[in-house]
Design brief:
- By secondary structure, the protein is mostly helical.
- Among the domains are: 42-117, Arc Repressor Mutant, subunit A, CATH 1.10.10; 198-323.
- 32% of the residues lie in helices and 6% in strands.
- A two-stranded antiparallel ribbon has the order 1-2.
- Helix 2 (52-63) crosses helix 4 (83-95) and helix 7 runs parallel beside helix 9 (260-270).
- The longest helix is centred in the C-terminal third of the chain and has 16 residues, at 222-237.
């Protein structure tokens, strides 16, 4: 009954004072180290100009005991980084004052590299004792070389501010006008005859419907024929022969032809011949209340011409008089 019975579990180690659990981001679980630790300032671990390799290498060097070898080859063997990256990281630490390397000649003539690590750049340093050279005869005291001057802390030189970029001169920007294309520019209007008589309309529609015999790809619907008939009637009104119209509309067709009606509209509009001399006199007499001279088909060449009586066109009449 005199022996105490301890049944309660030991208390958990108290957290480090000031630790709080944030709502987001990293959460630290910190325990105090009793041995085997190195004090490193946040000015190194959170340095904004050092690379991650340089920060890690500085932490490793500060954790090593005095006299440890930290050559480039030895560090490259210790870590997966190459000798080039290790050398670049050492140069970064030297430039920011965390490391100082100097070449020192000993009394026996050997040249060594002395490396000084600073856990706080810019602070006062303690004199570092010069290592004694190893000699073959220990009975003779080694000559004490003159201590070298304390290492000079190299501080990064201020980087010159880049010259201001030249301000572009303000010039009025000309308005860019897109070039007219077939998609943005409306097509020209289809030519219209002075008077679309029933006979002229019948000949024009018959000519358009007959184009598929000359070119099978020129198959037009009734709507397309009615739309294009006034343009063909304008050609007939200007004394264009039907064979000439067929040849103009069916020659050099693209292959494949996707829109035959659009192609015919383009050719009828852009290739329209001018009226013959003297034809305006006939049109000028076509006023309200005046009978317009109808179109006739030539009995010889089937060409359309204006006349009050059927017969031959002007060219055929000239040929007949020449033959007589």
């Amino acid at each position: 009954m005199d022996t105490p019975q301890i049944t309660a579990p030991p208390c958990a180690p108290s957290p480090v004072p000031g630790d709080t659990t944030p709502s987001s981001g990293v959460i630290h679980i910190n325990f105090r180290h009793a041995a085997g630790f190195t004090v490193i300032g946040n000015h190194l671990t959170q340095h904004r100009e050092l690379s991650l390799t340089a920060i890690g290498l500085a932490a490793h060097i500060q954790s090593l005991p005095a006299g440890a070898r930290i050559g480039i080859k030895r560090l490259a063997e210790r870590f997966p980084e190459s000798e080039t990256r290790v050398a670049a990281a050492l140069r970064e630490l030297e430039a920011h004052g965390y490391l100082h390397r100097s070449r020192v000649r000993l009394a026996d003539g050997r040249i060594i590299t002395r490396t000084v690590s600073y856990n706080q750049p810019g602070t006062a340093t303690h004199p570092v004792t010069t290592p004694h050279p190893r000699t073959a005869t220990p009975s003779k005291p080694a000559a004490q070389p003159t201590p070298p001057p304390p290492p000079r802390v190299t501080t990064p030189e201020p980087r010159p501010a880049p010259p201001p970029a030249p301000q572009p001169q303000s010039h009025p920007t000309p308005a860019l006008v897109p070039a007219p294309t077939s998609r943005t520019t409306p097509p020209p209007p289809l030519p219209q005859p002075q008077e679309l008589t029933p006979e002229l309309h019948r000949v024009a529609t018959a000519l358009l419907a007959d184009l598929r015999r000359q070119a099978p790809q020129l198959v037009l619907s009734e709507h397309d024929i009615d739309t294009l008939a006034p343009g063909v009637a304008t050609w007939l009104e200007r004394d264009a022969h039907r064979d000439t119209i067929r040849h103009t509309l069916t020659t050099d067709l693209p292959n494949p032809l996707k829109h035959p009606a659009k192609l015919l509209r383009h050719r009828i509009t852009t290739l329209l011949p001018p009226p013959l001399p003297g034809a305006q006199d006939v049109v000028a007499r076509a006023r309200p209340g005046v009978i317009v001279i109808p179109l006739q088909n030539c009995d010889r060449c089937d060409r359309a011409f204006r006349s009050r009586h059927p017969g031959h066109c002007r060219d055929c009449r000239s040929d007949l008089h020449t033959a007589a």
